[in-house]
Every structure is written in structure tokens, then in C-alpha cells.
Amino acid sequence: MNGRRITADRDRCIGAGMCALLAGSIFDQDDGDGRVLVLDPVPRGELGAVLEAVAVCPSGALSLDEG
């Protein structure tokens, strides 16, 4: 995933958790409010899972930016 960076808009996140289910080593949920936490903003693997998580996020809070 050279140069790609994951960003998450926590204000937009509704805490559905699809991202954490699809790519648990990249995403987690905050214990307090359930909103997304990006564990690795520049992941080295799991491109397919990251792309799927971005695509299925119901609130559109996730994006994958090209570096």
C-alpha cells in the first residue's frame, strides 16, 4: 500500500464496526463511544480488506488517500 494513508472522520462515524470486523489489525472501536480508531494509518498489508471497509462504511467516515 505504498503511499496510501487511511483517514477517519470520527465526527461522521456512527460506530457500526464494519471496519473493525473486516480489518481488525487496521481498525478498532473506541471503548467509550464505539467510534472508529485507526490503528495503522499507513498499513503494509490487507489492501483488499481496507478497500472493502472503506467501501462498506455506512457513514462514509473512512477514506484511503493516495500519497
TrEMBL record:
Alphabetic keyword roster: 3Fe-4S, Electron transport, Iron, Iron-sulfur, Metal-binding, Transport
Protein name (Swiss-Prot/TrEMBL): Ferredoxin
Function, as annotated: Ferredoxins are iron-sulfur proteins that transfer electrons in a wide variety of metabolic reactions.
Listed InterPro entries: 3Fe4S_ferredoxin, Fe-S_cluster_ET
Lineage, uppermost ranks: Bacteria, Bacillati, Actinomycetota, Actinomycetes, Mycobacteriales
UniProt cross-references to Pfam families, sorted A to Z: Fer4_15 (PF13459)
Cofactors demanded by this protein: [3Fe-4S] cluster
Matches recorded under Gene3D superfamilies: 3.30.70.20
Domain of life per record: Bacteria
